[in-house]
């Protein structure tokens, strides 16, 4: 086993162990310290809470690291299909360790947090990342997909507010909801057209043909699966955002009417 392969395997294993420890031990201790409401949650709520704490930690780590690679890693920018994947491999190995850890948690606590869409999402991502780590190809694309994780902290924070029974119209809840919708749209939806334009631009070229049929099909099919799910989630988030904005307007109109009567 060469040095790069050892680094990848070690990183995946270290990531898996770290996120398991975060879920089973660190999150319980940390959450009880920073959020008094955590201790009053039911056992089931605590399971999902810890799962989302781990998700947030993972998203911030690979999202910020991925953004740095996206902007400054000259090797993968110069050659998105075959550029040196050294930095990207570390980021994808961290993400892979998390996905395996989260799959295990989802299956173990299926009655509480089991979700077939998350299983499909995790398996599709792991399948695609396998080729990046094994063959050193499509590093730029693999890292580009990880930028979608930048939206997860806002999605998780929305759930935290709901679990702690924050009012839907509280300032913190509304601001987070707007940020969640905007960031999700930018990193998961706006990114779709450029990705498929790039696929079209390299289709049939010599570097593309060198990938081989299996990797070509795996690349495109996994992207399609993930993007269909992202569009479905975006529609759900948008409906929720529109509903909240509509209720806020109704509340303001009602208050204005009451104030008018008082005058």
UniProtKB/TrEMBL annotation:
The chain crosses the membrane at residues 6-32, 53-72, 92-110, 174-199, 211-235. SMART domains: TLC. InterPro entries: TLC-dom, TLCD. It is found in: Membrane. GO terms for cellular component: endoplasmic reticulum; membrane. Pfam families: TRAM_LAG1_CLN8 (PF03798). It is a multi-pass membrane protein. Residues 44-246 form the TLC domain. GO terms for biological process: lipid homeostasis. Keywords: Membrane, Transmembrane, Transmembrane helix. This is TLC domain containing 4. It comes from Propithecus coquereli (Coquerel's sifaka). The gene is TLCD4.
């Amino acid at each position: 086993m060469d040095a790069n392969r050892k680094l990848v395997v070690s990183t995946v294993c270290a990531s898996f162990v770290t996120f398991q420890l975060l879920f089973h031990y660190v999150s319980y201790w940390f959450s009880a310290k920073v959020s008094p409401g955590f201790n009053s949650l039911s056992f089931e709520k605590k399971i999902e809470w810890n799962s989302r704490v781990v998700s947030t930690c993972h998203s911030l780590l690979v999202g910020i690291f991925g953004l740095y690679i996206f902007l400054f890693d000259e090797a993968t920018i110069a050659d998105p299909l075959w550029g040196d994947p050294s930095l990207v491999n570390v980021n994808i190995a961290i993400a892979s360790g998390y996905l395996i850890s989260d799959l295990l948690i989802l299956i173990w606590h299926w009655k509480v947090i089991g979700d077939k869409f998350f299983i499909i999402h995790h398996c599709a991502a792991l399948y695609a990342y396998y080729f990046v780590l094994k063959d050193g190809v499509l590093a730029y694309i693999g890292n580009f997909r990880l930028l979608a994780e930048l939206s997860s902290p806002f999605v998780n924070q929305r759930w935290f507010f709901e679990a702690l029974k924050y009012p839907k119209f509280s300032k913190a809840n509304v601001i987070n909801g707007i940020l969640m919708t905007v960031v999700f749209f930018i990193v998961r939806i706006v990114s779709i057209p450029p990705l498929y334009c790039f696929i079209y631009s390299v289709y049939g070229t010599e570097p593309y043909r060198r990938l081989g049929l299996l990797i070509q099909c795996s690349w495109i099919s996994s992207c399609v699966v993930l993007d269909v799910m992202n569009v479905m989630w975006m529609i759900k988030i948008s409906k929720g955002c529109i509903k909240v904005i509509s209720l806020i307007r109704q509340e303001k109109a009602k208050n204005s009417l009451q104030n008018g009567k008082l005058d």
